[in-house]
Amino acid sequence: MADIFDVVADPTRRDILGVLLDRETSVPESHGEISVGEIVTALGVSQPTVSKHLKVLRESGLVFVREEGQHRYYRLDRGPLERLEDWLIPFVSTDAAADAAALAGVDAAGDASLRQEQRAFASALGKAFADTAHQVTAVVAATKRR
């Protein structure tokens, strides 16, 4: 299964997710379901291309599919996107530093009495966040080049 960042990095897949979200919000009686043909019409992309991207979205858990005869109806599964959002929040929150300090048990200004192991933990955590931020930046840069 592809990494969720790889999945959402593709603009066509993001467009499909947008169509699914639009269906969910604008036609509530549809329960968010939309046929492949309607997605093709909405995007103006070929049916094989849409099907290929829907397969990736399905395998990554971002969409549900319901089969009815030869027809396939897709709808958005918000679960993976919510987990992605939870992961991203510390990086985009303006209060990230204050949140990290609160989790470490100190005020936002810092506390000179931190024990050595707390400092080591904070350092390791900071390095992990920096490495992850670098990976996200690389994905975003790759997406912009496409």
UniProtKB/TrEMBL annotation:
CDD domains for the chain: HTH_ARSR
SUPFAM superfamilies referenced in this protein's UniProt entry, alphabetically: Winged helix' DNA-binding domain
Classification via InterPro entries: ArsR-like_HTH, HTH_ArsR_DNA-bd_dom, HTH_MetalResp_TranReg, WH-like_DNA-bd_sf, WH_DNA-bd_sf
Domain of life: Bacteria
Keyword Translocase: no
Domain HTH arsR-type: 1-96
Keywords linked to the UniProt accession: DNA-binding, Transcription, Transcription regulation
Isomerase among keywords: no
SMART domains according to UniProt: HTH_ARSR
Protein name: Metalloregulator ArsR/SmtB family transcription factor
Organism, scientific name: Agromyces indicus
Species lineage: Bacteria, Bacillati, Actinomycetota, Actinomycetes, Micrococcales
